[in-house]
Amino acid sequence: MRPLTSQDPRAVGPYRTLARLGAGGMGVVYLARSAGGALAAVKVIRAEHADDPGFRARFRREAEAAARITGPWVVPVLGADTGGREPWLATAFVAGPSLAEVVGAGGALPTATVRALGSRLAEALMAVHEAGLVHRDVKPGNVLLALDGPRLIDFGIARHEGATALTTTGAVIGTPGYLAPEQASAGLPGPPGDVFSLGCVLGYAATGRPPFGAGGGAGALYRTIHEEPDLAGVESGLLPLITACLAKDPAARPAASRVRDALAAEAPGGPGRVRDPREYPGRRGAPDPREHPRTPPAPDLWQPPAGLPALIAERSAAVLALPDPEPLPATLGPAGEGTASGPARRRLLTAGAAGAVLLAGGSTATWIALRGRGEGAGGPSAGSGEPLTYTIGLHADLGGPGRATGLAHRRGAQLAVTDHNARPDAAFRLALRAEDDAGDPAKALRTAARLAADPGVIAVVGPTGRLLREDLVQRYETERLAIVVVAAGSTTAESGTGLHLCVTRPFDDVLATGLIGYLTRTRPATRILLVEDAADPVSAKETGGAFRDAVPAGATLLEHPLVRGNAGFGAVARKAVTSGADAVVLGGGEASRAARLAAALAGEGFTGSRVAAGPALGPAFLAGAGAAADGWVFAEAYADPTALPSARTFTSAHRERFGVPPDTWAAEAYDAVGLIARAAGTTSASGEVRSGIARRLVRSEHRGIVRTLAFDASTRRVRIPDGIFLYRIEKGRPRFLGPFGDV
């Protein structure tokens, strides 16, 4: 929750506003209180969107659809005004977190809890389907957990079964990883699609991971259509039911009523066994209420996940501690606006605050939808005469094994923020919020959640680890918060699937491009010995593949493997000499083994070029190779700002402020903040900074102190030519040579 600002209404219809819960691209969700004291979540649509007849019609359909759905496990509609200048919709307030939050923080749920969760969600879908509707976006983020059970929320894209699509033909509606194959193929959805999504949710709750893999986007869509779900770890009693829900053929899936019955009943065969839905006849189609009357499931007692009662109590206490509503203005305009000072200008905050039971405009519904803009935390409001303040988050390892890299990021970002704020023409100010994950994957997810929960954060620099994890990319994707990754050398996320991911460096798998350029232009080689280290097969394959695909013109490529263990270095060195090679390329990233190869080559008197990708360059190489390290050339993705004329001012400021020259990745972090500021400057006029920044980042071209940042829009990664730098070892130290194309 966030406090109300002077721009927020103090009344919306019969409700008195208490706080902001969140917002999306179309409006703001408020925590409010009715005249009788009941709490509500009130979604208010901005007037400029309500002026669009098409949008107003969609909002009216949403309100009408949600009002028709009743049941204990859906959030009820309390009231609405779809005809006003700023339409609004009020629903009951739920103080609980989402299923995504609970599983993301604590892992898989116990089987008994999953069974109770599923039976209640299936009953909620029965209510949806009996109303002639299809939800179309059943996912963990749309399930709130209360003390007595779950609540299904967000009917922003619910529609009549068989109705004409409201979006562009061929658009994928729903959330990849949780939508049915027919939806992933842009087909017409029906009740079986919701059952498929329910199966995905239950698989996620039972295992802690989506059945069709994390990462979202095109990869999840492909796996949903063509591959079987990963249900490893699902308890055997639940497995048949979830498998049935995830059938590719919609006709083979059980109806929601069958799922409810299967989960609620203790079938013959022992306590706790979930009855296979195939034991029920007539699995196709919507439920028949005469055959399956809606009765509360008996055996599956709801057991709140560990920590849920305390979390709900904490959030409820925060609600109770809110001050009484402020006195209303003497004259009220539409939706409770004070008219004495003119119409209030509402600023949008981020969606997804705990307890927000509806998201504005159904903005979580489409794969390409982005998040609402953030208001600068503590920043002045519009009309105050002072510029807004936008906060940039820093997700860094500041206390773990990668502390040096994290500290370099923080210092570079601090200097960038200071420089931006010193500009006399700055249209807004910047602030930096740093969060430490200590290099721990579990803490990293919690760090992402904290940054995403701050509505003032418009984008995040980081994380700063060498490996960019798919689950972390997915967490920021779920939160619709853009991340600008500076230092990661590799990722487990699929290329192009993170719509909020921007990578400002080439990954390690393309660094060999710089080595090929060096052996083509700088030190032309005619006989190149490719050495693939079996101890590091990933790097070996990446480097080897690059050279086989792009052998320098006129050169002959020779190959000799470097076997595991300690016996193969001498054989490689002898092959380099006897074959007449004038260059050796190491495919491998272990610095200690690179050092042993360097020593072996020196021992055989080899004097040709010796090159490797950056991961092999480290303290272990310099210490282990000694004098044999001299002359080796490495391709890296970072620059040495002390050797860059464009970074002289930065280097001087860094020395003055921190007493030391900038460390690796400090200058790149400085440029990342500059890129975010540029993107924010091009979206601020539309009033959607946080939502628009992800799109603008990869469309921007920012001339930084290290290099010009320009991106491939499909992969959201920086273009290669000026992003790979070469270093040569001289007198035991790496000497910066510059971009490989300029060396």
TrEMBL record:
SUPFAM superfamilies per record: Periplasmic binding protein-like I, Protein kinase-like (PK-like)
InterPro entries xrefs: Kinase-like_dom_sf (IPR011009), Leu-bd (IPR028081), Peripla_BP_I (IPR028082), Prot_kinase_dom (IPR000719), Protein_kinase_ATP_BS (IPR017441), Ser/Thr_kinase_AS (IPR008271)
Keywords on record: ATP-binding, Kinase, Nucleotide-binding, Serine/threonine-protein kinase, Signal, Transferase
GO molecular function annotations of the record: ATP binding; protein serine/threonine kinase activity
Residues reported in the UniProt entry to bind ATP: 43
Ranges where the record places region Disordered: 263-306
Compositionally biased tracts (Basic and acidic residues): 273-294
Signal among keywords: yes
Domain Protein kinase: 15-263
A Pfam family matched in the record: Peripla_BP_6
Family to which this protein belongs: Belongs to the leucine-binding protein family.
Protein name (record): Serine/threonine protein kinase
